[in-house]
């Protein structure tokens, strides 16, 4: 009888939370999520200029060059523009820990500490507490925009956006039936995705290659590719403007400061990770240009070597204020590197064992993780429309699992409902935003041609 009472209470609780979601839908109808406020939106170029402040000025031309490659490249680099747009639109007023830059290339496979390959979100520079649908909208719009870049029809692009959101809604309904602990333990294995048919015929997710990635000695491949011998010791190869050392006259001071920042980073780790890293010594440090949106940030690579000659590469990335904070509220963390680390641990099913944060004497804030760890990156170039749709399902699933960890899946399930209205609405929004993004992209090309931005 006692168990029956507990089960009855659990069911009642889920029903109550489901009703809360339905009530929220009456206050903020799903149909209102399709509206894009274009009349009062700020100039997107001004937002880009503002987001360029504090970056390495000599790298800004490379940032704008990468953004000007295509409308999708522009979209990847303009998370701040979309954050502004999302803030002007109707919101459900339901907040949780979001990714903040949830586009389709910020997903992929990576190895857990147990050497199991999982599929998940893998970029958290903009993570913050914000309305949950902001992530869903950015993901859906990324499929619409990337699909156009690949030459798909608008119907096919809309179908991809719809598929991602449909997968999100259906998996959220599944998480709504789970306990908090079950959700927290949930992972999406690449093996499961492959066998389910949701990802197939993509060379990046070939089972044999995945097996090789897991068995490969960590960082040996990167060591052969990224280093060379200099005066009897391994150092990182320069490959400007993508990888480079600071000028020779500044190297000694730069290395000393890197050592100090590294020591501060160690304080953010648990005792067991500190013990593991005590087997390694910092050998070299170089700057490294990464991504599209991060170009110009103070980012780089640390090479560490053990006494037995084993390499370890750590990547440091400068952390600025999340693009969502001006609109969704300031982070509760004092340091943005700390914000990124805490957000990633909340959202990801398994985080890098070396994930931590630090600061330097100039006041810059960073987070640190392994450079690569059996990462499996998707490639848009190899996707036909069928694979594109399968990948959309996988991304929707991964985002749903991430949101269920810090949000209330039953409330979100109650809001989205059991029919297709939610995905129909967000797919329409995605196509409308793809049109807006193309206008913003054309404006970028115009100002670059006029010489109003560094090139």
Automatic annotation (TrEMBL):
Residues 1-14 have a biased composition (Polar residues). Residues 1-20 are annotated as: Disordered. Coiled coil: none annotated. The keyword Transit peptide does not apply. Pfam families: DUF2252. Signal peptide: none annotated. Keywords: Membrane, Transmembrane, Transmembrane helix. The chain crosses the membrane at residues 285-307. This is DUF2252 domain-containing protein. It comes from Flavobacterium akiainvivens.
């Amino acid at each position: 009888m006692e168990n029956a009472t507990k089960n009855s209470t659990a069911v009642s609780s889920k029903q109550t939370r489901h009703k809360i979601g339905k009530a929220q839908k009456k206050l903020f109808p799903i149909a209102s999520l399709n509206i894009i406020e274009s009349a009062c939106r700020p100039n997107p170029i001004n937002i880009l200029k503002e987001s360029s402040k504090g970056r390495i000025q000599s790298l800004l031309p490379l940032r704008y060059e990468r953004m000007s490659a295509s409308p999708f490249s522009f979209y990847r680099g303009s998370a701040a523009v979309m954050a502004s747009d999302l803030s002007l639109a109707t919101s459900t007023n339901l907040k949780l820990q979001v990714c903040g830059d949830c586009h389709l290339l910020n997903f992929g496979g990576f190895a857990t500490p147990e050497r199991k390959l999982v599929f998940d979100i893998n970029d958290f520079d903009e993570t913050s507490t914000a309305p949950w649908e902001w992530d869903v909208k950015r993901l859906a719009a990324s499929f619409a925009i990337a699909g156009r870049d690949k030459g798909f029809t608008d119907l096919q692009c809309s179908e991809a956006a719809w598929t991602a959101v449909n997968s999100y809604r259906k998996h959220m309904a599944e998480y709504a039936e789970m306990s908090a602990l079950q959700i927290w333990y949930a992972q999406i294995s690449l093996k499961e995705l492959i066998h389910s048919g949701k990802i197939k015929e993509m060379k990046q997710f070939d089972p044999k290659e995945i097996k090789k990635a897991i068995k490969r000695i960590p960082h040996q491949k990167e060591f052969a590719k990224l280093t060379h011998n200099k005066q009897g010791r391994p150092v990182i190869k320069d490959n400007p403007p993508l990888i480079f050392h600071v000028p020779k006259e500044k190297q000694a001071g730069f290395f000393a400061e890197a050592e100090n920042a590294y020591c501060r980073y160690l304080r953010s780790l648990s005792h067991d990770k500190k013990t593991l890293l005590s087997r390694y010594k910092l050998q070299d440090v170089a700057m490294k240009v990464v991504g599209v949106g991060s170009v110009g940030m103070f980012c780089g690579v640390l090479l560490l070597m053990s006494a037995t000659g084993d390499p370890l590469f750590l990547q440091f990335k400068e952390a600025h204020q999340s693009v969502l904070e001006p609109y969704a509220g300031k982070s509760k963390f004092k340091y943005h590197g700390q914000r990124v680390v805490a957000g990633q641990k909340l959202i990801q099913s398994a985080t890098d064992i070396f994930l931590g944060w630090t600061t330097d004497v100039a006041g810059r804030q960073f987070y640190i993780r392994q450079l690569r760890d059996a990462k499996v990156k998707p490639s848009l170039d190899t996707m036909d429309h069928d694979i594109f749709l399968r990948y959309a399902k996988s991304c929707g699933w991964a985002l749903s699992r991430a949101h269920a960890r810090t949000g209330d899946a039953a409330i979100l399930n109650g809001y989205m409902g059991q029919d297709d209205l939610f995905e129909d609405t967000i797919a329409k929004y995605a196509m409308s935003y793809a049109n807006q993004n193309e206008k913003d992209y054309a404006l970028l090309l115009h100002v670059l041609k006029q010489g109003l931005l560094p090139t």
